[in-house]
């Protein structure tokens, strides 16, 4: 089952260069097909930094040989009205899997191609718009880029300036442009008399009229460029706009070359099919795009969680970048992520933070943070081979290990919490449990902390860490494993797919637990209709939870690789690929009517592509 990205309106295909972020959306409210920039963000990719007003920015086109407008919203009311088919979305892709997003769509005989990119090292976003005819007949067309601004505080010729906050300004124009009109869209594009509406406190629709474009037949017309430039002041935004316009015709090529150079750093994955090669490149691209200018990795395409730093997710992106050999990015991401850490009253660290306030944004109680931090530091250090990382971060390593060793109860396990799934706990009528995930990731973190301690000649500490890890695994074996099946917690025999990670990504469980655990998970967590793996069994969480999740499906596939069952592994990997959007993005899960939730989550979905292909290569291709 394939779907476009927007059938859940919280899903977006992102474009970013670390300074600016654009959300591209293919379906609007009510699943209306439309190719638009849904939102722009500057500096902080937080919902509070939204630059556009709903419904964002899109394009209208008048083919002068046709009676029907390319008009997804039915805005134009002319004599013949909006007869004809709806807008058809023909093709979406990240060009070559890199950081330029392309959409081809048509209505009637009018074909529109847009490309959207963020030029390297600029606070700007560019969209090119080209047209041709479906029947390949020569024609002439006028393109009308539309943008809904939050306000207009000033216009300078055909440049319009919007102020979002004290240090967020947006300057926008189109090149080449004949005029820009704010106010009634339908009147602006049909040449009717228009009352200009500009107000610094109210949302304003803005329409640009461009010179008529010659359509040569089979080829697309010359591109029209729509530019969004941002800055911390009006002057900075205008300067950014001027600099971007100066090289506008070379910008797409320059951006593509920058992405090509970045991808050359990527580890050589070996030969892949064209489809897998595209998924590999897109997934690396999305991991890079999740990095803000200071290196902080965040979720970038999922509206409810936009602009938050989760330690687990950010470290997952960070370590994925390290494994793919984007070493500079991984180091910056590690330091940026850990700079957010604030201690809870019990000495552990909070789990989630807002990127603007840098304050905790907690909605769950999870004790796995310290184990994840130790893993993240070790993984980057082990790949980069720079002991300065350990030296710089030893206070955090020490705090994390001390907390783990001091927060086990009489069972030998880490104190009860929500485990890996943050939507579990008393706020949903569930008691916290001695979760297998929490104790296991803590044990793995201690083992890796021991390696780092040995490197610093802290051998007594290393022995202490190893002893603590062994004791945690022994406690798991005693309380959380039944007939070789690893269960969710000490309190229940229910299953949790996250335990499979401790055979693959965090190999710390005995191999004799692997087969019975996988057999139980296949029997009880594999969706009987859709395939794929549920993340857990009988937890009270949000709507749609008993559906296959991308992460657990990758994890179970990886566990099958460890078990030397290549065919079974690819059954699960292919399940995820078959449920991708046309542009190659994977969902977090599917909701009940087949709608995806959480597209563009490089921590959870796209990282699964990178990590599973690397594991497959290491287990099979190198033999």
UniProtKB/TrEMBL annotation:
Xref: InterPro entries: 6-hairpin_glycosidase_sf, 6hp_glycosidase-like_sf, GH15-like
Domain GH15-like: 352-500
Membrane-traversing stretches: none
UniProt entry tagged with the keyword Hydrolase: yes
Keyword Chloroplast: no
Domain of life assignment: Bacteria
Species, as recorded: Bacillus changyiensis
Pfam family, one: Glyco_hydro_15
Protein name per the record: Glycoside hydrolase family 15 protein
Molecular-function annotations in GO: hydrolase activity
Key words, A-Z: Hydrolase
């Amino acid at each position: 089952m394939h779907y476009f990205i927007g059938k859940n309106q919280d899903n977006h295909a992102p474009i970013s260069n670390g300074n600016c972020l654009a959300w591209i959306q293919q379906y609007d409210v009510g699943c209306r097909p439309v190719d638009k920039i849904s939102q722009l963000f500057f500096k902080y990719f937080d919902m509070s930094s939204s630059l556009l007003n709903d419904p964002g920015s899109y394009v209208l086109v008048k083919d002068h040989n046709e009676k029907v407008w390319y008009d997804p919203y039915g805005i134009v009311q002319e004599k013949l009205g909006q007869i004809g088919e709806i807008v058809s979305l023909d093709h979406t892709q990240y060009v070559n899997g890199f950081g330029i997003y392309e959409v081809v769509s048509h209505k009637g005989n009018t074909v529109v191609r847009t490309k959207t990119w963020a030029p390297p090292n600029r606070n700007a976003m560019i969209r090119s718009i080209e047209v041709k005819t479906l029947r390949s007949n020569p024609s002439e067309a006028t393109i009308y880029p539309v943008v809904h601004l939050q306000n207009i505080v000033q216009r300078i010729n055909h440049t319009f300036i919007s102020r979002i906050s004290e240090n967020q300004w947006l300057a926008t124009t189109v090149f080449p442009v004949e005029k820009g009109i704010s106010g009634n869209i339908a009147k602006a594009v049909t040449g009717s008399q228009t009352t200009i509406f500009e107000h610094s406190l109210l949302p304003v629709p803005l329409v640009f009229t461009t010179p008529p474009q010659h359509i040569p037949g089979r080829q697309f017309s010359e591109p029209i460029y729509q530019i969004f430039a941002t800055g911390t002041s009006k002057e900075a935004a205008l300067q950014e706009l001027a600099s971007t316009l100066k090289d506008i015709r070379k910008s797409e090529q320059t951006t593509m070359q920058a992405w090509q150079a970045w991808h050359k750093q990527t580890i050589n994955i070996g030969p892949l099919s064209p489809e897998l090669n595209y998924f590999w490149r897109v997934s690396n691209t999305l991991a890079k795009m999740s990095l803000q200018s200071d290196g902080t990795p965040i979720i970038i395409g999922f509206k409810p969680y936009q602009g938050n730093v989760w330690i687990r997710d950010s470290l997952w992106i960070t370590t994925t970048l390290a494994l793919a050999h984007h070493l500079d990015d991984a180091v910056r991401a590690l330091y940026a992520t850990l700079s957010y850490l604030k201690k809870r009253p019990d000495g552990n660290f909070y789990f989630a933070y807002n990127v603007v306030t840098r304050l905790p944004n907690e909605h769950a109680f999870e004790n796995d943070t310290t184990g994840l931090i130790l893993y993240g530091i070790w993984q980057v250090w082990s790949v980069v081979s720079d002991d300065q990382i350990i030296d710089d971060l030893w206070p955090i390593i020490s705090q994390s290990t001390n907390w783990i060793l001091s927060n086990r109860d009489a069972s030998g396990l880490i104190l009860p919490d929500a485990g890996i799934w943050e939507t579990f706990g008393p706020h949903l009528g569930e008691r916290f449990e001695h979760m297998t995930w929490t104790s296991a990731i803590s044990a793995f973190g201690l083992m890796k902390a021991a390696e780092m301690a040995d490197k610093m000649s802290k051998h007594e500490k290393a022995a202490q860490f190893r002893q603590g890890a062994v004791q945690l695994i022994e406690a798991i074996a005693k309380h959380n494993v039944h007939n070789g099946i690893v269960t969710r917690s000490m309190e229940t025999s229910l299953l949790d797919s996250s335990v499979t990670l401790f055979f693959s990504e965090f190999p710390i469980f005995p191999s004799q637990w692997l087969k019975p655990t996988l057999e139980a998970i296949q029997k009880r967590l594999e969706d009987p209709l859709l395939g794929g793996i549920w993340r857990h069994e009988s937890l009270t969480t949000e709507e749609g939870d008993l559906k296959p999740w991308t992460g657990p499906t990758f994890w179970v596939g990886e566990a099958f690789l460890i078990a030397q069952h290549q065919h079974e592994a690819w059954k699960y990997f292919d399940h995820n690929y078959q449920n991708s959007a046309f542009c190659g993005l994977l969902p977090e899960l599917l909701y009940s009517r087949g709608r995806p939730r959480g597209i563009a989550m490089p921590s959870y979905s796209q990282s699964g592509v990178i990590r599973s292909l690397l594991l497959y290569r290491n287990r099979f291709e190198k033999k």
